[in-house]
Amino acid sequence: MISFQHVSKRYIKHKALRDVTFNLEKGKVIGVVGENGSGKSTTLKLIAGLLRPTSGEVTVDDQKVDRGISRMVAYMSELDHVYPFFTVGEAVDYFASQFNDLDREKAEEILSFMKLRKDQKVKTLSKGNKGRLKMTITLARKVPYILLDEPFSGLDPMVRNAIVKGLIRFVDLDAQSLIITTHEIREIEPVLDEVLVIREGQVLGHELVDDIRSNGRDIVGWMEHLYEGGHIDG
Ligand SMILES: Nc1ncnc2c1ncn2[C@@H]1O[C@H](COP(=O)(O)OP(=O)(O)OP(=O)(O)O)[C@@H](O)[C@H]1O
């Protein structure tokens, strides 16, 4: 379980998260959604141990997050982090040398699903294909928590649905959780178990998708309702 207890994060002047408390259970696909600048990436970076909370505590499976957390958490950032002169195959080899939990067989399977060739140079890949490569490298790691920050940016809408479904195929929900920040709520809705809505650094809503549906709403309808009410919990 991932747990935030009264977590605040301040960047020099700006308070990106304000006294946030929530738990994310294991074995689920969780969407972290909200407007630009609401604090979604900051939340993921705190789980990945790339940032430290200004106050409060973040734990993963009861372990306080520190640098060693990379054994439990695979994080895919929004930014380019793959050396441009590598081929796709070399990029996979490089990350396999950095993370001994990277499953090469699975990486090959995902590359072929993503329609990437191992001899392609990273610098020649389109933005969408770079995104696919980053997703491949992250999803191929055998860790309990996989974090994807805006994985669909740059992907054309025609393939987005297929990629969303593929994501699930490559996650072992008996042993792994997938946590995704996204603005593409409608595309991701079919695979989500749980949604966490962040607004201006606070938790605006946190609900199981089944519970949202049993109230006769879809996620977008539920979010509209939340934003209208301006209800803050957590
Ligand atoms: N390194 C930084 N230094 C200063 N301010 C930052 C830094 N990173 C983020 N912020 C600010 O913190 C707030 C939350 O940023 P964050 O990136 O977590 O939002 P987000 O919800 O992921 O946004 P988006 O949907 O645009 O990616 C924003 O106001 C942002 O400008």
What's the helix and strand layout?
Blueprint: E1 2-11, E2 14-24, E3 29-33, H1 40-48, E4 55-60, E5 63-64, E6 73-76, H2 88-98, H3 104-113, H4 127-139, E7 145-149, H5 157-169, E8 177-181, H6 185-188, E9 194-199, E10 202-208, H7 209-214, H8 219-229
Helix pairs in contact: 3-4
The site of adenosine-5'-triphosphate has 12 residues, from strand 2 and helix 1.
GO molecular function, one term: ATP binding
Domain ABC transporter: 2-225
InterPro entries: AAA+_ATPase, ABC_transporter-like_ATP-bd, P-loop_NTPase
Poorly predicted segments: none
* Overall mean confidence score, pLDDT: 91
Distance between the termini: 17 Å
Strand content bin: 25-35%
Characterize the main sheet. Answer: 6 strands, mixed
Task: Tell me how many strands there are.
Answer: 10
- Derived from helix and strand composition plus strand pairing, the structural class reads alpha/beta
Number of helical segments with 4 or more residues:
8
Order of helices and strands: EEEHEEEHHHEHEHEEHH
Helical percent range? 25-40%
Main sheet: strand order: 6-7-8-3-9-10
Coarse shape: globular
Radius of gyration: 17 Å
Question: What ligands are attached or bound here?
Answer: adenosine-5'-triphosphate
